[in-house]
């Protein structure tokens, strides 16, 4: 049977959480690195595909093409911190993982994702500028503009901007983590891709805040000469967005499904 019903899906999440809790540091770093690089590829691809279009059409096109990166991550069984923000809390609730194992996974995978994004972003900056010899062109300008909207705009708004980034992080990972969960809802490649596409396209088209995507966009903009400091990136984007991603993934995409599908509550 291709489709996996909700109760069986939660069993798949249990199994996944147990596997993730037992990964070696080497495995988490390498698979996290690959995930970060693939997500950075997909972000650059979405920006390029939507370049020059009207705002509404650009959002639609970017949202349509961006999930290719996420689909590759899920099909290859790689590690993405934002998906693990949902999977590991379910594992704890179902006795398949401990808090220390969850934090261990989150930290090492997050670092691996960061390294993958930075690595690709630096190479991409070299490509756009002919090794920093030429201007970065329209695609570079778009990356810089997006990065500024994710940092300087929030800084200008102060506390309200920080809260906005946090809430957009919650809304983002509600969908992104559901993409990870739905990737377990089918046993066929096509079924997995279609299921993944639904929530991932929504988050990107709505320009919500994803901590791993931002690890590519903002450092790459800095490489390209954007007037953004590392402290502005960390304080006004990376911290609030990551915290929001944790809340959105753990509570709305993970634990909410766990409590809605506990065997004792099944009709």
Textual characterization of the structure:
This protein has 267 residues and is mainly alpha-helical. Helix content is 78%, strand content 0%. Helix 2 (25-49) runs antiparallel to helix 4 (67-75). The chain is globular. It starts with 5 loop residues before the first helix and ends in a 7-residue tail after the last helix. The mean pLDDT is 95.
SS element count, helices: 12
Rg result: 18 Å
* Class of secondary structure makeup: mainly alpha
Distance between the termini: 22 Å
Q: In terms of quaternary structure, what is this? A: single chain
Which series of helices and strands comes N to C? HHHHHHHHHHHH
What is the 3D shape? globular
Fraction of residues in helix: over 70%
Sketch the major β-sheet. none
Q: What is the mean pLDDT?
A: 95
Q: Which residue ranges are poorly predicted, with pLDDT under 50 across at least 5 consecutive positions?
A: none
**How many strands appear in the DSSP assignment?**
0
| Strand fraction | under 5%
């Amino acid at each position: 049977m291709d489709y996996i019903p909700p109760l069986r899906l939660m069993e798949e999440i249990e199994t996944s959480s147990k596997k993730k809790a037992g990964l070696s540091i080497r495995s988490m770093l390498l698979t996290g690195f690959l995930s970060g690089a693939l997500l950075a590829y997909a972000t650059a691809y979405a920006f390029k595909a939507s370049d020059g279009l009207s705002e509404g059409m650009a959002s639609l096109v970017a949202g349509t093409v961006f999930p290719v990166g996420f689909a590759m991550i899920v099909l290859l069984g790689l590690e993405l911190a934002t998906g693990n923000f949902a999977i590991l809390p379910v594992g704890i609730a179902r006795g398949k993982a401990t808090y220390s194992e969850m934090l261990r996974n989150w930290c090492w995978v997050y670092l691996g994702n960061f390294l993958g994004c930075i690595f690709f972003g630096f190479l991409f900056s070299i490509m756009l500028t002919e090794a920093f010899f030429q201007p970065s062109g329209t695609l570079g300008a778009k990356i810089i503009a997006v990065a500024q909207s994710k940092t300087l705009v929030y800084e200008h708004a102060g506390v309200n901007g920080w809260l906005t980034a946090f809430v957009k992080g919650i809304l983002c990972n509600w969908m992104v983590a559901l993409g990870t969960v739905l990737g377990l809802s089918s046993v066929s490649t096509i079924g997995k891709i279609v299921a993944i596409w639904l929530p991932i396209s929504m988050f990107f088209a709505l320009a919500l805040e994803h901590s791993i995507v931002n690890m590519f966009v903002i450092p790459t903009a800095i490489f390209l000469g954007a007037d953004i400091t590392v402290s502005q990136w960390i304080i006004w984007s990376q911290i609030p967005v990551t915290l929001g991603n944790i809340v959105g993934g753990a509570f709305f995409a993970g634990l909410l499904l766990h409590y809605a599908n506990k065997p004792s509550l099944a009709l």
